[in-house]
Structure formats: structure tokens, C-alpha cells
Design brief:
Blueprint (H helix, E strand, L loop, with lengths): L12 H9 L7 H11 L4 E4 L6 H14 L6 E4 L3 H14 L7 E4 L5 H9 L4 E4 L1 H9 L10 E5 L1 H6 L3 H10 L5 E6 L4 H10 L4 E3 L11 E7 L5 H13 L4 E5 L3 H13 L4 E4 L5 H12 L5 E4 L12 E6 L6 H8 L9 E7 L4 H12 L1
Parallel strand pairs: 1-6, 1-7, 2-4, 2-5, 3-4, 5-6, 8-13, 9-11, 9-12, 10-11, 12-13
Helix pairs in contact: 2-3, 3-4, 13-14
The structure holds adenosine monophosphate.
Adenosine monophosphate (AMP) binds next to helix 3.
């Protein structure tokens, strides 16, 4: 049994007021289990998929812990710039009306601006591993005084090839620290890191991972490869009538660009999201989409993880992901928290082998 009120979790009344303001009524499972352990100073390793409320699960107790000691600092590391930005928003909510500050250390942004912010010794630093390591190597930023570290989406960071940087960061952090590791899945390489660097962690396997969120209705459409674009147009016509937002996943940056141009010509309100776009444009597109200025986003797997946009109702897999796990993450962009969602997956003859792998992954 887990707690079904925030009151019993040990948070301060300041934080309880903020929780009320955010309209969180009951804690999610990962919050109910992680918050008391974090407040007690324990290391944790939690299996928490996106949409489980994991960000607030560490942001709220850390806000309480750091507000009690003005030299305490927390470093939060996330795989992508977009996720780091989203985390910063949640942290800012959790520390509103306090003396505490945040800084964001991500690639694609002006280093001077980041350095200016770091000089003010903000309590919360949210970083991507690549840019953080750049700063460490150039000795423009030291992490020796960070007594709290959060790893958000560790599986994704390892998948992106950041193992060396991650180990380097762990080794430079003070010996006496509290570490919190969150990962959607726990393959061997994540477990190995946890074993090496965490100190007797409380294990939280709150949700069933590797399984799609039950709020999402999954639909499969078997189709000839050359009919996909026509089918996509039909689906978008039908889905855009709901007035809710739609996310379409493709495999390559080129396909994202081409399909976006095609759909714009057809009169759809579309933006594009992939790693080949300048960071400025990525930020603007994401903001436009988040604010509902455009209804449809065409994206590569860059947008598969972590993005939390409650208005996304429909996810369309125009092409299948390279890696079966990404399927769960992609469709998990809809059905956020307790909303309903729907996903459509277009499967041509040439996709069958990849689809089989996804089905095997889901049934395991
Ligand atoms: P996350 O898994 O951290 O990306 O959070 C998913 C979404 O759930 C975010 O939109 C949060 O604002 C929302 N959320 C987190 N915790 C709660 C809660 N206890 N009650 C209601 N909404 C929540």
C-alpha cells in the first residue's frame, strides 16, 4: 500500500501549498515511494517511465532539503536539452517564493550566459552530460560542492553514449552525497552503474516498465508503403477535428522535413522537430507546440522521450522506431498523467520484421 495523500509524506507546509496550487490531488506511486526516502537522505534508484510524475518526485523533496541549508546544491542531469528545460520549469515551480535559483547548462546555448548564471552559485543546476563535461574540462564549472545529484532517464543517457562522461561526473562529485537515479528501464548497463556508484539505494519499481500506458488505445494499420502518405493525410484530417494535438514520428530528419513540407502545402498546421535543426528553432517550435499555436508536430525520436505536453492526444508512427523500446516512449507522449490517448502505427510490408521485434518486446 502506498500513501494517497501528500500530507503524510513529510514535506513542509510551504511545499504542500505549492502542490495545492499545482492542482496535484494525490501523489503518484513513484512520488509516494520516493519523497519520504529522499527526505530521509537515502539514495534511490527508481524505475519510472515518463508520465509517472517522476520530476515532481525529486523536485519537491529537494526543494525542501535545499531550503534548509543555504550552501546545499543539487545537480540534475538529463539526456536532452528539451527534457532539461522541462525539468527546470518543474524545479522553478517547486522553489517558487524562496531564495533559491536555477541554472540550465545545455548545448546549443551561449556559454557566456551560462557562465554568468553559474557564478551566482544557483542551488539547482540542470545539465545535459555533454555540455556539463565541456564546462568541467575547461574548468569553468566545478561540481565538488554538489551534495545532491539526480540522474533523470539514465537508460537514455547510456544509449546516447554518455557512459564515460557519466562516470567522470560521478567521480568528481563529493564522496558524501545523496544520489537519485531515475530510469524508464533497467537493462544491465544501468544496473551496473547503480551498483558501482549508488550507496545502498532504496529500490522503487513503482510502475510496470516496458509496458505502454493503459490509457492509450493502440491501433495498427497494415498498408502498402506507397500509400502511407495518403493514409497519414486522412488520419490527420480526422484527428485534427478533435482540436487536440497530434505528434507524428518518422525515422529520419529528411523524412521529417519532407513530410512537413508536404503537409503544409495541404494546409495543415505543422512544425518539425529533429536534431538537425538549430537549437533556437527547436526551442521556438517546441514552445509554439506547447502553447497550442500549431496542432501537429512531425518529429524524429528526439521527441520520443520525456516531452510532457498534456494536450497531445494522438501519436502516429508513420515509420517504426529503430529500437523497440522507443515505441513505448513514443506513444507515451499521449495519455499523459490520467488523460486518454490514441496511437496509430502504420505498418508496410517492409516494416514487418521491425514490428515483430516491437511485439516481442511488449510481450516479454
Ligand atoms: P513527469 O512524469 O514528471 O513528466 O510528469 C507527468 C505529468 O504529470 C506532468 O504534467 C505533471 O504536471 C503531472 N503530475 C505529476 N504529479 C502529479 C500529481 N501528483 N497529480 C497530478 N498531476 C501530476
Amino acid at each position: 500500500m502506498t500513501n494517497n495523500t501528500f500530507f503524510a509524506l513529510g514535506l513542509t507546509s510551504v511545499r504542500l501549498k505549492i502542490i495545492k496550487k499545482l492542482n496535484y490531488t494525490v501523489p503518484t506511486q513513484v512520488q509516494a515511494e520516493a519523497i519520504p526516502s529522499i527526505l530521509q537522505g537515502k539514495d534511490i534508484m527508481a524505475a519510472a517511465p515518463t508520465g509517472s510524475g517522476k520530476t515532481a518526485a525529486y523536485a519537491l523533496p529537494l526543494a525542501d532539503l535545499l531550503s534548509k541549508k543555504d550552501t546545499a546544491r543539487a545537480l540534475i542531469i538529463a539526456p536532452t536539452r528539451e527534457l532539461a528545460q522541462q525539468i527546470q520549469t518543474v524545479i522553478k515551480e517547486a522553489i517558487q517564493d524562496t531564495f533559491m535559483q536555477t541554472a540550465l547548462i545545455v548545448g546549443g546555448k551561449n556559454m557566456q550566459g551560462q557562465l554568468r548564471k553559474l557564478k551566482q552559485k544557483p542551488q539547482f543546476v540542470i545539465a545535459t552530460p555533454g555540455r556539463l563535461n565541456d564546462h568541467i574540462k575547461r574548468k569553468t564549472f566545478g561540481i565538488e560542492d554538489f551534495g545532491f545529484v539526480v540522474w533523470d532517464e539514465m537508460d537514455k543517457m547510456l544509449e546516447l553514449g554518455f557512459r564515460e562522461q557519466i562516470e567522470d561526473i560521478f567521480n568528481r562529485l563529493p564522496i558524501k552525497k545523496q544520489s537519485m537515479m531515475f530510469s524508464a528501464t533497467y537493462p544491465k548497463r544501468v544496473l551496473k552503474l547503480a551498483e558501482k556508484y549508488l550507496n545502498n539505494p532504496v529500490k522503487i519499481f513503482a510502475e510496470e516498465v516496458n509496458k505502454p500506458n493503459q490509457n492509450i488505445t493502440q491501433k495498427i494499420i497494415k498498408i502498402e508503403g506507397n500509400e502511407k502518405l495518403k493514409k497519414l493525410t486522412e488520419l490527420l484530417q480526422e484527428q485534427s477535428k478533435t482540436g487536440k494535438q497530434i505528434l507524428v514520428f518518422v525515422k529520419t530528419q529528411r523524412a521529417a522535413n519532407e513530410i512537413s513540407i508536404y503537409l503544409k502545402r495541404k494546409g495543415f498546421s505543422v512544425i518539425t522537430m529533429h536534431g538537425g535543426l538549430q537549437q533556437k528553432i527547436r526551442d521556438k517550435n517546441l514552445l509554439d507546440f506547447r502553447q497550442g499555436l500549431t496542432q501537429i508536430m512531425i518529429a524524429t525520436d528526439l521527441a520520443a522521450r520525456g516531452l510532457d505536453i498534456p494536450a497531445i492526444y494522438c501519436v502516429i508512427n508513420y515509420e517504426l522506431p529503430q529500437n523497440p523500446e522507443e515505441y513505448v516512449h513514443r506513444i507515451g507522449r499521449s495519455g499523459r498523467y490520467k488523460n486518454k490517448g490514441v496511437s496509430y502505427t502504420l505498418i508496410a510490408r517492409s516494416d514487418r520484421a521491425d514490428w515483430k521485434k516491437i511485439k516481442e518486446f511488449l510481450n516479454n
